[in-house]
Amino acid sequence: MALPNGIQHVEQLPVEGRRVFVRVDLNVPLTKERAVSDDARIVAVLPTIRHLVERGARIVLGSHLGRPDGKVKPEFSLEPVAARLADLLDLDVVLADEPVGDGARKVVSDLRDGQIALLENLRFDPGEEANDDGFARQLASYADVYVNDAFGTAHRAHASTSGMVPYVAIRGAGYVMAKEIDVLSRLLGEVDRPYLAIVGGAKVSDKIEVLDALLTRVDQIAIGGAMANTFLTAQGRSLGKSKVESDKLHLARNFLRKASEAGKSVLLPTDVTVGKGLDDESPRVVGLDKLAADDMALDLGDESIAAYVAAASRARTVFWNGPMGVFEKPAYARGTMAVAHALAGNRLALTVVGGGDSAAAVAQAGVADQVTHVSTGGGASLEFIQGLELPGIAALATPPAR
After folding, report:
1. What is the per-residue pLDDT for 402?
2. How many whole angstroms separate alpha carbon 68 and alpha carbon 70?
3. I need a surface site. Which of 16, 65, 88, 241 has the fewest CB within 10 A?
4. Residue 354 gets which letter from DSSP?
5. pLDDT tens digits along 243-255
6. With 90 as the cut, is the pLDDT of residue 400 above it?
7. What is the C-alpha separation between 112 and 309, in angstroms, rounded?
8. For residue 399, what pLDDT is reported?
9. Cis peptide leading into 194, omega within 30 of 0?
C-alpha cells in the first residue's frame, strides 16, 4: 500500500541481518496472577514480527505496560507478555532486565539473524515519557532500522515513538501502523455518503474537539452514552440523577447551534433505559419527560435504539467511538450491542471503529471481523480523524539527523 509523505512499509526496508528496533504496543491487561487476560494487541503485531523473522532480521522489541511513572515496579514487568508472545510465535523471546543499560546492550548484541529480544518496560525509565534525548539516543544505539507498529501510542511524543527516530537512518511502518494510516486517511478524504459519526462515552469535555472536527466532514452525528445526558440537559431536559457535566452545558449548546447553522443532523436519545444505580438489574425504558428524580439514564431506550440502528444501516461511511451506555453491565448493554450489530450488518459501508471501549464492544458482540476496521488506538484514532499531526507518524517522514 502507498503511505503518505514518503513513509516506507516494513516490506520495503533492508532488514536482513540488521538490528531492527520495533516499537510495538504490548500494553495488555493482566490478571491478578499476572497472566495476560487479553492478547489482542500481541496478536496484532505478529505479522510484522513474523515478517522480520522470515527475512533474518535481529529483532529488538520495545513497549510500555501500564503507568509505572518512570520507576521500576515489578508488577509492570513485561515478563508475562514475553511469555505469551513466545507461545504465539512458537519462538524464543529473550527479555532484557532493563530498557537501556549494560544488560540490555548485552541482550541486543547477542542476537543472531531471526532472533527476538524484548526490552523491559520502557516506562521504567523516566526518559521515555519525557522524550529525553539521552534515553532516545541509547535506544537508537540498539538499531540499524526503526519500525513503528504501535499506532496506539503514535499520538505521544515519547523517546521510543519520536525522539529516537532521527538517530536511525532507515525507518518505516509495520503492518498495524500501515493499515491504520491507510484506513483512517480514507475518512479524511472523499467518502461515500451519507457519512455518519457515532460518538459516545462519558464526557463532553473529552470529545468536544472531535465533535467540532467531525462536524465539518460528516452528514450526521449520533451522540450516546453519558455525554448525551449533557446535551439533553442543555436542551432543557430534566434527567434525574443521571451523570451530567453541568459546567460543560455551554459547550453542548454551542455545538448544537453550530450543527444547526451548518445544516448537519444531530441524533440524540428520545427515550432512555434507566436504573436507580449501576447495580440496578431491573432497568426500565422511559421517555425523556418521564424520568423520576432518582432515575439514572444508563443506556438508550427502545425508540432511540431503533433510530440509531436505522442511521447506521443507511450510512455508507461510519466512524464509531464510544459506547451508548454502561455496556459493561448486561442490563445496560443493549444500545451499544445494537450499534455494533448494525455496523456489522451494513455490508455496503466503510465502517471504522475507533478503538477503546468501542473496540471492546464489537469484540463482546462477536462482530469485530465483520466491520471494515477496528483501530488499535482510541486516543490516536481520535486525533488522526481530527486531522492532527501524530508525532509517531510524523517522525517516520522526517529526514535522519546528521
Report:
1. 60
2. 6
3. 16
4. -
5. 999 999 999 999 9
6. no
7. 53
8. 77
9. yes
Of 9, 6, 87, nearest to 52 (Cα)? Answer: 9
Of the pLDDT bands very low, low, confident and very high (cuts 50, 70, 90), residue 36 is very high
If we measure between CA atoms, which residue out of 49, 57, 50, 53 comes closest to residue 17? 57
Alpha-carbon distance 339 to 133, whole Å?
45
The H or E element containing residue 361 is helix 356-365
Instruction: Give dist(CA 306, CA 13) in Å, integer.
Output: 49
Amino acid letter at 77? S
401: cell is: 539527523
Catalytic residues: 41, 203, 356, 379
User: Phi then psi for 195, rounded to 5 degrees?
Assistant: -105, 120
- Dump the DSSP string for 19-88: EEEEE------B-TTS-BS--HHHHHTHHHHHHHHHTT-EEEEE---S--TTS--GGG-SHHHHHHHHHH
Place 4 in a pLDDT band, splitting at 50, 70 and 90.
confident
Contacts 24+ apart (CB under 8 A), 72-76: 72/124, 73/124, 75/34, 76/121, 76/123, 76/124
Backbone angles phi, psi at 61, to 5 degrees: -95, 140
Residues counted in the chain: 402
Cα torsion 186, 190, 195, 199: sign: positive
Q: Are 256 and 266 in contact (CB under 8 A)?
A: yes
Task: Record the pTM.
Answer: 0.91
Q: Let me know if 152 is exposed, middle or buried by CB neighbors in 10 A (0-12, 13-18, 19+).
A: buried
Kindly list the distances between the CA atom of residue 174 and the CA atoms of 3, 55, 180, 291, 376, in Å, as whole numbers in the listed order: 11, 14, 10, 50, 13
With contact defined as beta carbons under 8 Å apart, do 65 and 79 qualify?
no
Question: Domains of the chain, with CATH numbers?
Answer: 4-181+391-397 (3.40.50.1260), 193-348 (3.40.50.1260)
The pair phi, psi for residue 394, each rounded to 5°, is -60, -35
- Counting Cα atoms < 13 Å in the Cβ hemisphere of 235 gives 17
Gap between the Cα atoms of 236 and 257, Å rounded? 14
Going from the C-alpha of 25 to that of each of 129, 258, 346, 400, the distances in angstroms are 15, 38, 30, 24
3-state secondary structure of 272: strand
Cβ–Cβ < 8 Å for 196, 219: yes
